[in-house]
Amino acid sequence: MAFGDVSTPQGLKELEKFLADNSYISGYSPSKADLSVFEALGKAPAGSFPHVQRWYRHIASFEAAERAAWGGSPLPQVAGAKPTVPAAPAADDDDDDVDLFGSDEEEEDAEAARIREERVAAYAAKKSKKPALIAKSSVLLDVKPWDDETDMKEMENNVRSIEMDGLLWGASKLVPVGYGINKLQIMCVIEDDKVSIDLLTEKIQEFEDFVQSVDIAAFNKI
Question: Residue 99's pLDDT band (boundaries 50, 70, 90)?
Answer without folding.
Answer: low
